[in-house]
Each structure stands twice: as structure tokens, then as C-alpha cells.
Amino acid sequence: MGLESAAARGELKEAPHDMRITIAVGERNWAEQKRVSEELQPVAVEWGIPPEIQRERGLAHGEMAYVLSKVDETNKESRSYGPCTGLAVVGQNKEGRPISFLSHQTPHTIDAESRFSEQFTHDLDEHLHALKEACKEGTIDVVIVGGSTTEYRSLFGKKKISDATYGRVAHSLTDTVRKILMVEPRVFGPTVNSAESTGITDVILDTQNRRLYIWRTQGQAFGDFDKPAGEIL
User: Fold this and answer.
1) Does the pLDDT at position 8 exceed 80?
2) Is 6 exposed, middle or buried (0-12, 13-18, 19+ CB in 10 A)?
3) pTM of the model
4) What range defines the domain where residue 30 resides?
5) What gap in Å lies between CA 95 and CA 92, rounded to an integer?
6) How many distinct structural domains can be found in the chain?
7) What is the CATH number of the domain that holds 63?
8) Count of CB atoms situated within 10 Å of the CB of 38
9) Residue 173's closest CA among 142, 200, 196?
10) CA–CA distance from 1 to each of 6, 121, 124, 137, 176 (Å)?
11) Around Cβ 164, how many Cβ atoms within 10 Å?
């Protein structure tokens, strides 16, 4: 069954309003971020942590390329999404409790030249399937966050992240979510076709209240908020 035909038949669903992740967006503010972090005590989901620590924490990871949190009831936090993107996924398990996972991945995880591409695809698919199997139907919502169109240094040298590159990453993540969850994700990313959208994004996912805090650099150019991927990409 192709994604296009599924979408045409109306089989891709947005989460019901009472199950949607609510979004709190603000400029980067260390005092506010510290207050929320101390209140929620989130688990750190940081791609730059050494691999041995990631293994100790039981996180799926690809060295400095990506990291995915566990699928569980904890709150999650990840900082410094520059060119990186993230998936925030929340659902309600069979016992009626919210569970989630949060990812942080560099753009080249979707590139065939990356030695982490196949591994990332496997780990992401595994996480999405695990959350789907654990949750009641109609309770899952997905937000794609982060990303910028700027220059950065990757494992493969200095690269320019263009609108086209960001678009490919967002499309790839969206297609994966649609294929496995049959859910239409929402995108909170940079303005496509702007001269340049740079900056840093930090997030905290409050799993139990289905709330995603997003802080971004002052003046960062962002596109329309709270729209399904199909209306943006």
C-alpha cells in the first residue's frame, strides 16, 4: 500500500485534539529552561555524549550521528538542535498512561554515504513499532522539531545545509512516521526558501502532560507552526 494512495483514501490521521502534543514556544532563556528542567527532571537525550555513556544509559545511538531515548513514561530533554532534527512522539499505553520517545539526529543520517544511515533507519523503525504496539489506537501524536539551513561540520567534513537538504530530511522522517504509525506528523522547522535560517533549538518533552517546550535562538526564522507535514512539505 503506497503512502500516496493511503493519504488519498484518508487513512493518514492526525491525533485527536485531546491527544495532541501541546506546544510552548519561546526564545532561548536559560533561567526559564532551568526552571522547567528542575521541575520535570527530564532524561538527557544528547547526541554528543560519548558512546560508552550512551550504552550505559541503554540509548540507541550512532556515535556522534544520532541518539534515541527509551520508549517509556519519563520526561525527556535535548539541547542544541542546530542543523539536527528531532522526533517527539507521545502515545497512551494500554494502561492509559502516556509514554514517549525523543530523538536527536544529524542531517546525514538519511544519506546513503553515511555509515549510520542503515543503523538509524533500523533503530527509528524499531522505536516507532514499539510505541505503536504499546499504545491504544488513536492516541499517538508526532512532532518534527529542529533543523536549520546553515553551514556545519559533520563527520564527513564541512557541509552546507540547504533548503533542499532540510526538505529531504523532513520528508524522510515524515514518510517513515506515515508508513509505520499511519499518523500525519506536524513540523516545527525553519522557513524553507528563506535566505538563511540559522540558530539553535532546545526542547523538553513533558510526557505525562503531552507538552513540548521549544526554545530557539532569538530571531531564528521559522515556518508556520502547528500544521501537518502535508501542508508544509
Assistant:
1) no
2) middle
3) 0.83
4) 3-232
5) 8
6) 1
7) 3.30.1330.200
8) 9
9) 142
10) 7, 20, 21, 20, 14
11) 10
